Structures are given as C-alpha cells and as structure tokens.
Amino acid sequence: MRGGTTTRTSKPLHAEIAGGGFAGLATAVALRQRGWTVRVHEKASELRAFGAGIYLWHNGLRVLESIGSLDEVLRGSVRPPIYETRRDNQTVSKEPLPGMAWRVMTRQTLHAAILAAARREGVDVVVNSEVVSADPAGSITLASGQTLPADLVVGADGVASNVRDSIGFAQDRRTSRDGITRLLVPRLKQQLGPGEWDNVIDFWNFEPCVLRILYSPCNEEELYLALMAPGDDPEGSQVPIKLELWTRIFPQLTPVLEAAASISGRYDRYQTTVVERWRAATSPSSAMPPTRCARHWPKAPAAQWSTGSAWR
Ligand SMILES: Cc1cc2nc3c(=O)[nH]c(=O)nc-3n(C[C@H](O)[C@H](O)[C@H](O)COP(=O)(O)OP(=O)(O)OC[C@H]3O[C@@H](n4cnc5c(N)ncnc54)[C@H](O)[C@@H]3O)c2cc1C
User: Fold this and answer.
1) What is the pLDDT of residues 271-294, one digit of tens each?
2) Which atom of ligand 1 is nearest to the CA of 50?
3) 44 burial via Cβ count (<10 Å: 0-12, 13-18, 19+)
4) CA-based angle 304:209:52, to the nearest 5?
5) How far apart are CA 204 and CA 216, in angstroms?
6) Could you tell me the fold of the domain covering 174-270?
7) Which CATH superfamily groups domain 14-80+104-172+276-307?
C-alpha cells in the first residue's frame, strides 16, 4: 500500500469506501497519506457517531497517532487511575494497569478527531450515499444505481455490512441473548458523594438477577453508562431504563441512574459475525496480485469490535 500510484500510468490509485464511521474515515486518512485518492460514502444525511462512550487501548491509540488524530483525542479523553471491579457492590479488584496505554472518551470525541484528520487530508466524503453492493472485480454500486470503479473497495459499513453481504462470503451471524443500553449522563460527582468516582468501575450483580453496569468517566463532564442485561429480562432490557430496578440493585449509583432514566435510550443485543474466508475487493486494473489487497484468514472473527463480541 506504500506509494499510491500505479507504475504503468502514474495515476494515483483510487479507493471507494462504504461507511463514514471510525473505520471508514481512518482507512481513508491512511490511504490519503500514501497518495491515494479516496471517496467515502456515508448513507446517513450527516457524519456522526452513534453510541455513548468508547475505550481505546494501545493498538487503537497507535492508529490514531499514525493518522494525526492522537493529540485531539488525548485532549478530549481521560486515562482513569484505576480499573475497579465490584461484585454485589463489594470491590473485588482494583487494577491501576501500570504501563498500559488506554483512554476513555465519548464516541463523538473520537469521531470528530478522525473526521478532522480526513478533512485535513482532503478526503472526499459524500453523505446520503448508500452503497448497496461491491464487485470483487473492482467497483461499488450505490442506491442511486451509479457504479463507481476503484482500485480498492473498503466495506466499513458496520456490523450489517452491505458490502460484505454482496460479496457472498460464507458467514455466520449470531445474536447473543445478552444486550446493552448505552447512555451518556452528567458526571454528578458531588451528588454521588464520597468515593473514587474517577475510576472505571465494573459493577457485576448475579442475584436475584443478572445485571451489570460499566461506569466509565469520559471527561470532567460526561459519564458513559453501559447497562447490561439478558434480552429475556423484560425489566432489565426496558428503555427508558426501569429506575426502580437499577437503583435497587446498584444504590450507590442512584444520582446518575436517575439522569439515565430521563433519556429514551436503545437496548441492543450483541452480535457476532464469523466468516470462513474473506478477501478485499480489488481491481484487476491495478494489475496487483491478490496478495496485496487480499487476505485469507480461516476462521477469522470478522470485525470483532463491530459486533461487540469482545467489547472491552
Ligand atoms: C456495546 C458495544 C460496546 C463497544 N465498546 C467498544 C470499546 O469500548 N472500544 C472499542 O474499540 N470498540 C467498541 N465497540 C466496537 C466499536 O463500536 C465498533 O468496532 C466500531 O464502532 C466500528 O466502527 P465502524 O466504523 O466499523 O462501524 P460503524 O461505527 O457501525 O460505522 C459504520 C458507518 O457506515 C454507515 N453505513 C452503514 N451502511 C452503509 C451503506 N450501505 N452505505 C454507506 N454507509 C453505510 C453507517 O451509517 C455508519 O456511519 C463496541 C461495540 C458495542 C456494540
């Protein structure tokens, strides 16, 4: 991928990317840095991140550094002092994670930083542009019917990827019995009272029902609450959240749970997509063998982060 020009024509290589989320925009920046021309298609009418907060670890932070987004993300995120785990509201572990690079932030912070890099690098971003399929011969087709050729097609169109489905990979998509409601609420540290409220705190509860809250400060003002419950628990999966249930199980969090209950929210089941073999779409016009753009990873869990199967 170094040196984005074809030797035959000296014309820059061109990529068409489906999806203006983290993956699509970061890939676009990396390709632009290597001399490619890049167009990103986003089906929504505006570019924005869905969801509440997100954790990034060493590998993700290195990617941000390479695309020039790291400083902005560091300014808008926190490195919590301790990763604490509680079971039935009793602390069972406190991990300072020395030497570990990790940050917690809002998804909006992360998306804005990557989008700013895309703008700086001159990535062409088109909104209201839905990709309906890709052809391994080197093209994408839009919902408008237009077909666009490319040296590289990137399917970064999320967990239910049209691009991946249209290529016809053998794949297995599973929905878990468990799910999650993700919300951003005010920190409300004063109202929470004494305590180490700058920590990440992973609250687990098993009796009388299985519920979990991941408490994640994103900055001085915003707190990411991830409330997990089995999908067959009508009260735990209810949105807006059932305040009486959550405060009964996790009374220490009452002020922030009250704030959470005022948000409509969305309960999502985890999904996992497993593909047997996969190959990136590439154009014969670039005269490159499959080794450049294609990979064969038997049993590779596809887009693992997209599915929430390994979510932290
Ligand atoms: C509950 C949960 C918690 C998670 N927590 C973490 C975490 O802490 N840390 C972490 O690293 N990861 C986490 N993940 C995973 C992470 O959210 C995803 O990996 C990440 O959002 C994937 O980014 P993406 O750009 O691939 O896809 P998306 O964010 O889904 O973006 C896809 C984009 O493509 C657009 N699009 C969709 N279809 C089309 C189309 N046909 N044509 C054009 N555009 C299209 C969408 O509108 C969207 O803008 C979590 C996931 C879940 C479910």
Assistant:
1) 888 887 665 544 333 333 222 323
2) 29
3) middle
4) 40
5) 14
6) D-Amino Acid Oxidase; Chain A, domain 2 (3.30.9)
7) FAD/NAD(P)-binding domain (3.50.50.60)
Task: Report long-range pairs for 296-300 (Cβ below 8 Å, ≥24 apart).
Answer: 299/274, 300/275
pLDDT digits (tens, 9 = 90+) for 149-178: 999 999 999 988 999 899 887 888 889 999
Q: Ligand 1 center to residue 49 CA distance, Å? A: 8
Distance in angstroms (rounded) separating the CA atoms of residues 155 and 302 = 12
C-beta 180 within 6 A of ligand 1? yes
Asked whether 54 lines ligand 1 (CB < 6 A), one says yes
Judge if the beta carbon of residue 233 lies within 6 A of ligand 1.
no
User: What does pTM read for this prediction?
Assistant: 0.87
Q: Is 308 in the pocket of ligand 1 (CB under 6 A)?
A: yes
Q: Which atom of ligand 1 is nearest to the CA of 131?
A: 42
Q: Is residue 43 in contact with ligand 1, taking CB distance under 6 Å?
A: yes
List, for residues 178-220, the tens digit of each pLDDT value: 999 999 999 999 999 999 999 999 999 999 999 999 999 999 9
SS3 33: helix
